[in-house]
Amino acid sequence: MLDNKTLLSAEVTMVTAFQDADPMGVVYHGNYFRFFEEARRVMMDKIGYGYREMQASGYVWPIIDTRVKYVKPIPFNHEIRVVATLTEWENRLRVDYVIYDAETGGRMTKAHTMQVAVTIDGGEMCFVSPTAFTRKLEAWYDSQA
């Protein structure tokens, strides 16, 4: 079992764009997933298991469930900090997200996504995370000790 004291996480800072906003100048709720995805991508790159490595290992990881709590509206042209943290990994991936106002540090959104490994060749869902992923995660944890 991996040590849970230091969870794998990553953060990105970005400025919301005009095209992210609705006519009221507030970021459209569906665009939050692009922010989550960028933080998740950076997090997975930290362990060397980005999209190309996933594909090369024979798996895709579709999202099967999401939950978002919109705490405070995010206006366009606003700097935000998005933090992604891997909180489950043995049977599925659960990634927790928090979007903060980059200036004040106030929480604006919290969310999570669930993903499962699916074999590329057969389209079979895995009930345990494949060793191609867990070895990468274990190596990252070992490097943190």
UniProtKB/TrEMBL annotation:
MF GO annotations: fatty acyl-CoA hydrolase activity
Source species, domain of life: Bacteria
Gene3D superfamilies in the cross-refs: Hotdog Thioesterase
Keywords noted in UniProt: Hydrolase
Pfam families, alphabetized: 4HBT_2
Record InterPro entries: 4-hydroxybenzoyl-CoA_TE, HotDog_dom_sf
Key word Heme present: no
Family, similarity comment: Belongs to the 4-hydroxybenzoyl-CoA thioesterase family.
Name of the molecule in the record: 4-hydroxybenzoyl-CoA thioesterase
Organism: Photobacterium aquae
